[in-house]
Amino acid sequence: MYVTVLPTGIWPRPPANGVSLSGAVPGGCQHLFRYGRDALWSGLLLLGLEAHHEVLMPASNCEVVMLPFVKRGLSIRYYGLNGQFEFDLGEIESRIGPQTRAVYANHYLGRPTDLSGLRRLCTDRGLFLIEDCAHALGGADQDGPVGQKGDIAIFSYRKFLPFPDGGGLRINIPHSGEVPESGAASRLVTAGGVFKSLTLALAARGLLPLAAWKRWRADMDAYLTCADEIDAADWVAPRQISPYSKKRIAGTELEPIINLRRENYRFWQQNLTSLRGVMPLFTDLAEGQNPFCFPILSENRDQLVQAMAKRGIYLEPTIGPPYRNIPKLGNPDEPFPVLEDIAARMLSLPVHQSLVRGQLEFIFQALQETCREWKPS
Ligand SMILES: Cc1ncc(COP(=O)(O)O)c(C=O)c1O
Questions:
Q1: Which of 26, 222, 239, 267 has its CA 20 to 30 A from that of 278?
Q2: Cα of 154 from ligand 1 centre, angstroms
Q3: Ligand 1, pocket residues at CB < 6 Å
């Protein structure tokens, strides 16, 4: 069996009462793209962000989020987060400078971040708020669904749904109705995405020796090593979503998917406490939260990832340390010890809706055996 934190089913498990095929797009996005990063690129153009503008960003984001900013030549200044991925409003305010034009905020790992104070701050100071919902599809807090407080919000459907592509842009400010720049969907990209989904689905059912192949290629090292550099040359021009994914995303009912993911999250909550050497990053599962994964911390994270990969289970770190080697980064040398510590110790257990109880137990047993053999250094 092959297990990742991403969905491996070829179609979301249908709810008992059937799947509506004409529903609205989850998240209320008006524009769909190949990926979330493409939606972000269009959003930056729509907001009119130019090279002399600065954006305040959390000090941990993946390469593909940073790339549109770097490609557009924008200045970036990091702000910190605490151990629960929450920002300090006062700290963000203290970092606003004469060039600051926007603040970027994430709902990390599916936990809706309270953006009401930041929304007020951005409005008062004439700044745009860019809301990243890539980890939080369908999530909500006491104020309502995520994606409604930012001037724009981006989504990444393909992280939750087993489709070859899918990113979305929700625009909450008045605009002309046109969204800038995205090329037509590429049949080649779609075919590649379908191939990937099918490969993962077959490997998850034990019908394809993907884990053995990855081990042979020593691929798990790629999960753990990442060059500290964002190079605009790696940027790929944005494209629209494939017609295949567009049709399916618009028909997806999220509620049964969220329920299954929450059930899987609770499996980990109940079982993990007995394991030596690992601890959950969060103790709660807030109402309205659609979990992205079940994050755990381990002092020997890299060894754990390697040991689990030997058993066919590919666990991702998910959260990386701040990229420092970025052109026009305002605070490249500032330490962010909390995020750096989490980035060194965290890995994600899967909660995706296509996992059944027997598969979760298989992963848990592998974790148990690994932790039992554990000889802390
Ligand atoms: C927090 C976050 N935002 C946005 C994205 C971009 O999504 P996509 O991969 O669909 O471009 C990612 C992707 O890894 C992400 O982790």
A1: 222
A2: 9
A3: 35-37, 62, 64-65, 106, 132, 134-135, 156, 158, 167
